[in-house]
Amino acid sequence: MQIYWTKINAIIKETPEVRTYMLDCPKDFTWEEGSHTHFALEGFNAGDKPNRSLIRHMSISTLPHENSIGITTRIKEQCSEFKKILRSLEVGDEVAIFKTHSNVPLKREDKNVYLLSSGVGLATFRPLVLDYFERADHVNKIHSLNIDSSNDFLFTNIFESAPDKKFTSQFVDTRKDYYEEVKSLSADKEGLFYVVGSDEFLVQNIAVLCEQGIKPEQIMIDKHEHMLTEFLSIDM
């Protein structure tokens, strides 16, 4: 396993609680849209075993041509030790990334794509939307639906409806409104549904989609293959 140590080159305050840490791209480090990585803080591998409290599974919110690896995360006032350390880091500090993989690349199957996310989960979809804007081949259209009760919606400069690009974006702040919209979107029985959020959020979305007649193979979640089957086979 290769561990890449790299430096923070910028910290962007997206909203009062959300920050994007922009990291230098190490030589030979590559990724694609929808990728996640293991993001670790200094000291995580100092002992005989990795200190898992200093490691988090994070989505990469940028594309390679942006020349920085973006890690977007919410840091609340009351937060974990990991987030407290992260909050104290500055430009020039080092972090580690390793085990990078994409479970949710953009499928180009001449279908409509629906991106369903909660809060900062939208960071996973930012690269998919940018990739689609650059090359719309074999994607009919994309609709993004995000729920965030904080009302501080993310990446509004990108997640803005663009009819000429066949892209629509929708933000809601209540669960009731969100799930009503999910039911409405699932009227498209041929669509591809991407879901990003907490495990509870995934389970609830899968249940609603399956109840509406969407097949498990039409649902994409950011989980490894062995966990994918587990989530998609939950007794609804």
UniProtKB/TrEMBL annotation:
Alphabetical list of SUPFAM superfamilies matching this protein: Ferredoxin reductase-like, C-terminal NADP-linked domain, Riboflavin synthase domain-like
PROSITE patterns: FAD_FR (PS51384)
Residue span, FAD-binding FR-type domain: 1-107
Domain of life: Bacteria
InterPro entries: FAD-bd_FR_type, FNR_nucleotide-bd, Riboflavin_synthase-like_b-brl
Name of the featured protein: Dihydropteridine reductase
